[in-house]
Amino acid sequence: MPPIRDSGSPTAAEISAKVRPRVLVEQNSSDEQWIAIPEPVVERLRQFGRPTPLHRARRLEQHLGTGARIYLKREDVLPTGSFKLNTAIAQAYYAAEEGRTTLVTETGAGQWGMSVALAAKMFGLKAEIFMVRCSLEQKPYRRHYMELLGATVRPSPSAHTAIGRKILGEVPDHPGSLGTAISDAIEHALHDSSAAYLAGSGMPHVYLHQTLLGLEVAQQLKDIHGEDLGVEGRGDHLIACSGGGSNLCGLIGPHLRARAEGADLRFLAAESTAAPRLTQGVYEYGRTDLGAFTPEVLGYTMGESFVPPPNHVGGLRNHHSSALVSLLRHEGVLDAVAFDQRTALEAGRQLLQTEGLLLAPESGHAVAAALEVVAKADAENLEPVIVILASGSGFLDLQGYDEVLLDI
Question: What's the number of domains the chain is made of?
Fold first, then answer.
């Protein structure tokens, strides 16, 4: 589908400068190794439960009969049920400090939208959220949560925007994707001078905020074992699902230097076969949205005409991977695997039956990847430390578990 905007429209850089809080734009290109977290953000992060637990999955280990040590970083325990709250609080704070009154964003499975809705309320702001249509239909309780907090929730593609109307005119039953929702949200924000557009993933400032994940894991493992990850000969692993890449980059980002300096450490992205960019995509320039509001970036892509099937992994359904995730993959720093939703949900069921933890379908992909890593390590007589990012809770995804695993 050709972009709706013409050559005389503002550039992606001009759009970003208009719709994003200034501090976030600056953080995208900062060369500082450390950026201080504002105290009001620290206060709310602590109130909401940071640092989150690092759970040793001993019953899963026993079930598998493995010598590997398996840990889950429990982001599912946060109030909105996912890691997304980490950057939502920071971005909402910067927007409020700049005098913006409305937060506008997209959401796939709804976890990011829930986090923005809560963060907006914490800082006295309004929230307007475009949610991928098939996810909105599959996960209505996430919409109820957002609306309880006063947020306005619209399906994407949306008849509320020009790009949404164009998409619906060409594909009336379009299930929506992160690409359509990003387009809807940015176009809407452009027409409201009081609004700030917040990105849930794909941007350097989001990855920066999410490095809380990897930093906490490093400290927690050191407290437990008295040693860092990457011990020679052990082949330790950090594993996360990959959609926009924010939970993945947040987990592995603080460990990239150690890997570059020779630590025996592997990074693994688990994606969905519904949008297998890292495993089947082409490495070329493209955009994450369909309205040409975002810049063209070099990344693994399925192409802008690709419409992912309407399955139950809304957070992983995008056609184009982020520049940073793609670069790490292209340079061989990051490995990637893809699973269909049944395999991911089966892995989630296995975790529930052993550890009593119910994770979101997106996180189930990371569990499935970890099970393969464990089997390979056992075959090679290795006993690595394996950290799985439990990025979200699955209690609002029970319909998906039911439909896929019970064939209803």
Answer: 2
**Which domain CATH number covers 397?**
3.40.50.1100
User: What is the secondary structure of 216-237 as a DSSP string?
Assistant: HHHHHHHHHHSS-S--TTT-EE
pTM: 0.93
Q: Are residues 292 and 213 in the same domain?
A: yes
Evaluate whether residue 377 is within a structural domain.
yes
For residue 87, the one-letter residue type is T
- Examine the fold and report which residue of 197, 229, 251 is the final residue of a domain before the chain moves on: 197
Question: Residues 190, 111: one domain?
Answer: yes
Decide: 247 and 75 in contact? Cβ < 8 Å: yes
Radius of gyration of the chain measured on its C-alpha atoms: 20
DSSP per-residue codes, 305-360? T------S-GGG--SB--HHHHHHHHTTSEEEEEE-HHHHHHHHHHHHHHH---B-
Q: Is residue 337 part of a domain?
A: yes
Query: Are 258 and 375 found together in one domain?
Result: yes
Range of the domain at 371: 45-81+204-405
User: Are residues 331 and 376 located together in one domain of the fold?
Assistant: yes
Please indicate, yes or no, if residue 11 is contained in any of the structural domains: no
CB 149 within 8 A of CB 156: no
Residues 126 and 236 in one domain: no
Alpha-carbon span 340 to 338, nearest angstrom = 7
CA 144 to chain centre: 21
Tracing tokens 């050191």 back to the chain, one arrives at 222
| Whether residue 175 is found in the same domain as residue 54 | no
- pLDDT per residue, tens digit, the chain (408 aa), is 444 445 457 888 899 999 999 999 999 999 999 999 999 999 999 999 999 999 999 999 999 999 999 999 999 999 999 999 999 999 999 999 999 999 999 998 899 999 999 999 999 999 999 999 998 998 899 999 999 999 999 999 999 999 999 999 999 999 998 889 999 999 999 999 999 999 999 899 999 999 999 999 999 999 998 888 999 999 999 999 998 899 999 999 999 999 999 999 999 999 999 999 999 999 999 998 888 888 899 999 999 888 887 766 666 878 889 999 999 999 999 999 999 999 999 999 999 999 999 999 999 999 999 999 999 999 999 999 999 999 999 998 888 888 888 764
Residues 393 and 87: their CA atoms lie apart, in Å, by 17
